[in-house]
Here is the input.
Amino acid sequence: MSSSMPSHKAQKMMELLPQKLNRQVVGSLLACVHCGMCHESCHYALTHPDDPRMTPSYKADQLRKIFKARHDWTGRVFPWWVKATTPMTDEDLEKLKDIAFGTCTNCRRCTFNCPMGVDTATLNRIMRGLLTRVGVMPEGVRVVSKDTWELGNQMGVLKEDYIDTIEWLSEELVDEFDDERAAIPIDKEDADIIYAINPREVKYDPRTITNAATIFYAAGANWTMASWGWDQTNFGLFSGDDELGAATWKHLQETFKNLGGKRLVISECGHGLRSTRCEGPNWAKTDQDFIMESAVITMARYIKEGKIKVDKNRNSQPVTFHDSCNNARSCGFYEEPRELLEMVTTDFREMYPNRTENYCCTGGGGAMSMAEYTPRRLKSAKIKADQIRETGARVVVTSCHNCVDGLSDLIKHYKLDCEVKQLVDLVAEALILPGK
Ligand code: SF4
Ligand code: SF4
Here is the structure.
């Protein structure tokens, strides 16, 4: 093969690019004026001031260069001027992998701070998707993707283990309340609520399932969990693989239809909410044809309607709230958790900046599954650590399982004197149960 010819994988990747181009994507590819304003918005750039690769526009330029070389007249006429180039070797693809997966959590903070409306995070996700299609990805991304395709959940939880864990939790609840109605139903048809979880809960943190089940029990809810299609997360958002994203979303859709539920309620998860509510139907090229909501909405409704009673004095320690990037920036979901937080805590302190300007927990974009980038991730976490420390809070609350892991890791690394909880934990703590 001539040295001027791209490698097979590089060639294949470039052939796939046109499938990803639409008006919004091309707009972001063309609109950047390289003003540099996004530099100040990125936690990687701010914590790696001597590394120009951390600037958001540099990351997006990796796709921009290919686009200009292959699909834009400026790249054909003045390639040297617009820096139009294409990857030629597999080593070039490895360098692109390091940038797309290892220097960006797709948090979209730069997107919100770009005067030209350039969606750098979307461009970075496209680069991830192209690389993934030709087999160039971190090992963790490969493993999680494989688990999702094979087992229908991103943590490789076997169906038997999932059922065993739910039954074990269910028996404990029945014993605790001495009431069969406290059991966790599985595959109950025509329930008002089908509750879908993050696999992290069944594998590492079953306490959150118990807390949710206790709240449903206290509210007298007609609810169920499903034995299949119960993973509300979606690794396709992180890997950039739209096919995986579509398949995962369809699992939830099938579960909803098969069980005949009235409403899908998903546990607290930023990328789960974004994927289930906004992105999944696009990947699956279909309509969002089932009603769904975050458990945050469900819990707040129970309190407002008097279905459950809470005593906020049980959560009197100082708490702050971390906005998940996907909840806040991509779903506009930031007042609802605060409203619930005010109902169940007595000393809530905002961290600054917050809401759409909040900094990433640094575990976003699947970063927790990419061990090779951990030192860089933890260095970039200094901003979040400083944000938390300045609040004086002892508890960092977040409505996202991914953020729980990202925050827990940085709290340990920067030796902060606080712990991470979710709203479901605080609501369960504040819950007043008759007879208890
Ligand atoms: S992405 Fe936006 S903020 Fe960043 S350099 Fe380009 S135009 Fe400026
Ligand atoms: S999406 Fe977030 S992590 Fe990625 S470049 Fe923009 S600000 Fe940085």
Observations:
- The beta strands are 193-196, 223-224, 263-266, 292-294, 309-310, 319-322, 348-349, 395-398, 419-421, 431-432.
- The two ends are 76 Å apart (CA to CA).
- The chain has a mean pLDDT of 96.
- DSSP finds 22 helices and ten strands in the chain.
